[in-house]
Amino acid sequence: MNSHEIDYKIIGDDIQLVEVELDPKETVIAEAGAMLYMEEEISFETKLGDGSTPDQGFMGKLFSAGSRLITGESIFLTHFTNHGLNKRKVSFSAPYPGKIIPIDLKELGGRIIVQKDGFLCAALGTKISIHLNRKLGAGLVGGEGFILQKLEGNGKAFVHAGGTIIEKTLNNETLRIDTGCIVAYEPQINFDIETSGSLKSMVFGGEGLFLATLSGTGKVWLQSMPIRKLIQRLSPIGGNARKGSRSILGSFLEN
Asked: Are 122 and 153 in contact (CB under 8 A)?
């Protein structure tokens, strides 16, 4: 199924939204609860599945939607369709501060791998499925690299991420990254996990026990503030986690 050709505009700086302009009969799909506003003559319907295969039976839709539960997402997607005779707009906002990345799947060979909670919305015709990292160790020790999402199609999709977005193009190179900072990468890129260094560095370095590695040739997108780090910083316990023994020593001296 060819994706609908939607127009869009990204609004805002640190807390962004994407405004999608739909021609008559055009449809955009989005995560449940992502809609911010929509103009008259646009209607929405919550459905099982992404609608990329209209002839798919109920059991097929149920299996496809059920796999989204593994990624922590809702089994439902909301379909917004312009039923009027003129162009109409609908907008979607990210669930936490950060940026929205517009991705033209046609320019990337029709496929991209995205972090499990990164998908925001896309043109109808985009297929959203689960992607399991073939290297089990990446999931067992990396935490966030085993269960991912795969977006397929020839239209536009929108991914959200925390903080500042860094887009890098690897040319037969390897990049070592904090495991939570990967947003998306092209499918020919190899994802793996390695230890962060010596035992001393792993325990006292503050960078965690493991690092993710992306290697090969292709594009990758990174985020400076994944939601996990944001929650840790906002938490009274997490905010002091990196202070370590300094907090303990400070409390002792103060007493």
From this structure: yes
